[in-house]
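Exercise: predict the fold of this chain.
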Amino acid sequence: MRKEILNEKGVIFDIKKYAIHDGPGIRTTVFFKGCPLNCWWCHNPEGLAMSAQVIYRRDRCIGCGECINICPEGALTFSPSGVGVITDQSKCTHCGICADTCPAEAREFIGKVVSVDEVVGEIKKDILFYDESGGGVTFSGGEPLMQPHFLLGLLDACGKLEIHRTVDTSGYADAELLLRIAEKTDLFLYDLKHMDSEKHKEYTGVPNEQILSNLDLLAKHGEKINIRIPIIPGINSDDENIDLAGYFISSLPGVQSINILLYHSAAEGKYRKLGIEYRLGKILPPSEDEMEAVAKRLEKFGFHVKIGG
């Protein structure tokens, strides 16, 4: 294997072992930083920004001032009320020194630069589980296609080890790049957020024409694709949107399986820690009956529909 591929670097925020909802079998899921979308319901807001971030848990802070004293940029100060520490984002360089210093672990550094070789070293530890369960590795995020050279290096390395490779993507990427990724990918988990382009842009920040076009391209190219649709009440759960999704997916060759994913607000705490507005605070998760109704509606188009990942 070429040395330059192994040395290719990227930014990730987590490696999850023994994942069972990110493709077939037992898997290792690598979470990339950076995403071109900004979905209101994103469960991994720590993956939105490409750069590293620091999370501050005020409830853990003991007010010792160690982080303030050690910050090389002078970006940290006690709040005027005397409760907690304030970060001047214009000065913070996300060096992570404050998180490393905090004795109470009130500050956490999210995101690190790693090489292909380092990530593959972690993936290889679980080859036995992949072989026994029909599993492998899944590259998720964020959006893994935001770091194409890093992703290609990982896909190439895992292919040489005969590890099953899945890419979890929004499909919002250059078509030529997507086909290059497809050459080294065994399965795509492809997200469909909303069929109406204007509403898609309202709730994700981007229109959907490129996403739908790329899905059609992959399907006609003969790729294995599992469609995943998050169900968010009042946004994309209506009959019209579900029917439009069913009609579109039924026009694609080779797509037999759809997963509908239950929206929940479990990530709301992450938004607070990151200082990001959580825009779906008043929306309740869909009920079991509502999820069953969506599944039955999609099954009429001839698909096997599974509730959950």
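Check your answer against the key: The two ends are 34 Å apart (CA to CA).
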